[in-house]
Amino acid sequence: MNANHARRLLATLAYVDRLLEEAEHLVASSSSRGLFPRVVVDIPPRQARALAEAIAGCRRTMLRHLRQLDLEAKPPTASLRHTLKVQFTSAEIALEDVRPRALRGYGELSAEEAEAIAKVIGDLHGAIERLRTLLAPLPAATRPRFSCRERSMRGATRHLRAPRPRFQRPQG
After folding, report:
1. d(C-alpha 11, C-alpha 120), whole Å
2. What is the pLDDT of residues 126-169, one digit of tens each?
3. Domain ranges of the chain
């Protein structure tokens, strides 16, 4: 198989793996106590366990075939810490969009309603900030060791973190 075949096969298997991951999450959420579930749980726990095991079996099958074809999946490039920070920031932005002043376009709120909404927003911002503190960098002794590739990836993105110069209008 040539490089194009390998790349296409790897891309498809990565997509299938993401679909399996979502299915796995849905099966696991059947026992979750989430406030806003995406699906109605209509399978019994025993069947959910069997599905979880079958999903794991699909992954083992994919891995076996990857090894037989001498193909290797690309290692992840996104940091879990960074991804979680982005999720928390997105949640904070969503909360800002329902502050009482942002809801004016939907009609007037009484002072009591505005205060209740502001309290909800404030409490959730505090809870998200507590989540952020759990993401604080670990002391050096407990940090995970990175492989050479992971260290080089961090260096490769250093230029992305540099502050960008501000745009200045031409004078005249």
Report:
1. 43
2. 999 999 999 888 776 565 665 555 554 444 444 444 444 555 55
3. 3-68, 77-137
- The secondary structure of the chain as a DSSP string is --HHHHHHHHHHHHHHHHHHHHHHHHHHHTT---SS-SS---S-HHHHHHHHHHHHHHHHHHHHHHHHTT--PPPP-S-HHHHHHHHHHHHHHHHHTTSGGGGGGG----HHHHHHHHHHHHHHHHHHHHHHHHTSPPPGGGSPPPPHHHHHHHHHTHHHHSPPPPP-PPP-
pTM metric for this prediction? 0.65
Number of residues written out for the chain: 172
- Distance (Å, whole) CA 37 – CA 21: 17
pLDDT value of position 142: 61
Which DSSP string corresponds to 107-152?
Answer: ----HHHHHHHHHHHHHHHHHHHHHHHHTSPPPGGGSPPPPHHHHH
Please state the rounded mean pLDDT for residues 53-78. 92
Please report the sign of the dihedral spanned by the C-alpha atoms of residue 33, residue 34, residue 37, residue 38: negative
Distance between alpha carbon 126 and the CA centroid of its chain, in Å? 20
